[in-house]
TrEMBL record:
UniProt name for this protein: ZMYM2-like/QRICH1 C-terminal domain-containing protein
InterPro entries on file: KIAA1958 (IPR042838), ZMYM2-like_C (IPR021893)
Keywords on record: Isopeptide bond, Phosphoprotein, Ubl conjugation
Ubl conjugation as UniProt keyword: yes
Residues in ZMYM2-like/QRICH1 C-terminal domain copies: 147-295
Residue ranges of the TM segments: none
Keyword Ubl conjugation assigned: yes
Pfam families the UniProt entry points to: DUF3504
Length: 362
């Protein structure tokens, strides 16, 4: 629904507490996994090098544990035999610290002088690894360039005319427009979090509804423009508002309520001529976390591209780039219309097995 900008009052968000708790759970799960990884790798190291040591680490006296940790930081290797990154070893130290603290160990392995030997061993090992070229962010993500986006559009991976392309397109638009806003989390985004509005002059725009810090259960309509994206009336084929409206139309009616998940999974088999392309089910967290990686791999775009690549890209296009994008989108629109028309008698079906929600374990 379109909401007038002059409308007084905002609806309450009844599930903010629940969503805040969900975010907290996600963060806790990551911390738990990190702790478990550190503990598992340290235990495996002890078994391989000190097979007679079978005690829980929180029972081992600090002098012995300090020696084990020093040995671990110096000699531990990954399963393929390669050395760890400097930050990985530091993360393991922090993970083991959390585990020991949970079991009321009497010392801190990161701060107390009783663990000076292992602390120094870690520092020396990190220096040695950096001298070998480790820690220079070899896995750093590369920005998603305008040229990359053109390729993705040409190959239908950013498109209004197929379910995967439309989902990618709306996700990319939202991330570019609102990803910088405090409190914006794509993995927990609800349909009512982004509103379609219209100014007094009739210009449509999308607005991300932030959370009021004084009332965790209330949505607020922000006065600034940093949480808005306006329609580009001169270029409807590349307009993010039109992309949003197309996505809204392709959603099942049952998933248009405010608290419905914003990103939906794609039907395993989709008739492009049908109105609805998506399931009444949220897109899995694993797939959301790999949106850019997946579309770039399918588009054969080189380099390491992740969701973070979007934040590194420039959201403002030059006039020449805008014109180029409009031309490409116009051509794709004509091709899509011809394709649907040519298959209208037999049905225009596509199989989207890679987005089958049943295969998403997230």
């Amino acid at each position: 629904n379109i909401i007038c900008e002059t409308e007084v009052g905002c609806p309450c968000l009844t599930d903010q507490d629940e969503r805040a708790a969900e975010l907290s759970r996600e963060q806790n799960e990551k911390t738990i996994r990190s702790t478990q990884t550190a503990l598992r790798n340290f235990r495996e190291f002890l078994i391989s090098k000190y097979p007679s040591e079978t005690r829980e680490i929180y029972i081992i006296p600090c002098k012995e544990l300090d020696a084990y940790l020093a040995s671990f930081f110096v000699d531990a290797r990954q399963k393929d035999g390669s050395e760890y990154e400097p930050n990985s070893l530091a993360n393991y130290q922090c993970g083991l610290e959390r585990y020991l603290k949970e079991h009321r160990y009497g010392y801190s392995i990161t701060r107390d002088k009783e663990f000076k030997r292992s602390q120094e061993a870690l520092k020396q090992k990190q220096m040695e690894l950096r001298c070998k070229g480790k820690g220079n962010k070899p896995h750093k993500s590369m920005k998603l360039t305008f040229a990359d986006e053109l390729i993705l559009r040409k190959r239908g991976l950013l498109s209004r005319y197929n379910p995967e392309g439309l989902l990618n397109l709306v996700w990319l638009n939202n991330t570019k427009a609102f990803g910088h806003c405090t409190g914006f989390h794509g993995s927990t985004l609800k349909w009512g979090d982004i509103r379609l509005r219209v100014t007094e002059t009739g210009l449509e725009y999308l607005e991300w509804m932030g959370q009021d810090g004084s009332d965790g259960n209330a949505k607020i309509k922000r006065t600034g423009t940093d949480s808005r994206v306006y329609a580009t009336q001169h270029a409807p084929q590349t307009c993010p508002v039109q992309d949003y409206k197309e996505y809204a139309q392709r959603r099942p009616p049952a998933m248009r309520y405010e608290d419905a998940p914003f990103y939906l999974s794609i039907k395993p088999v989709v008739n492009l001529a049908a109105l609805h392309w998506y399931n009444c089910q949220a897109l899995g967290k694993n797939k959301l976390a790999k949106m850019v990686k997946t579309m770039c791999e399918k588009g054969n775009i080189p380099g390491r591209k992740t969701n973070f690549s979007v934040y590194q890209s420039c959201s403002t296009l030059s006039e020449a780039q805008s014109n180029q994008l409009v031309l490409i989108c116009n051509n794709l629109s004509q091709q899509a219309a011809q394709s649907v028309a040519s298959h209208s008698s037999t049905g225009n079906f596509i199989v989207s097995a890679s987005y089958d929600s049943s295969s998403d374990t997230a």
